[in-house]
Amino acid sequence: MKRDQGGFTVAEALAGLAAAAVLILISLSLTRLTSQIVTNTRRYLVVNAAAFAKMQEYETKTFDNIAVGTSPTYEIEDFSASLTAITSPKIKSPVAKVYSEPVSGSLRKVRILVSYESGGVSRFIEYATFIQLGGVGR
What we know:
Blueprint: H1 10-59, E1 75-78, H2 80-87, E2 95-104, E3 107-118, E4 121-132, E5 135-137
Antiparallel strand pairs: 1-2, 2-3, 3-4, 4-5
């Protein structure tokens, strides 16, 4: 007697379905992870662009037009509100500040510091440069 060899057994069909289900779950997990990475990267790019633009603004100022902050923080500007306006609702309550401290009579250190939350994690972006009498130094 010959047996019919043309189909799948129930066990083979169930194994195939289980393998397909595992592959679908892995694909969905990777899609979700990719989406989170893209979202966090977009937030970073927006905040970074704002911080970089603020640094460029200070690099174009002359030495005499840059205030010196008072010790201990040397803060001279808080641009958190303007950053919130361009990033809301993507980024809630970012803190964005400019600090300027004297290094010598002809040299100032200018720092831009932005902190924000993305993906439940606190993140920071910082730019710093030296502004010297007669030009910019790095």
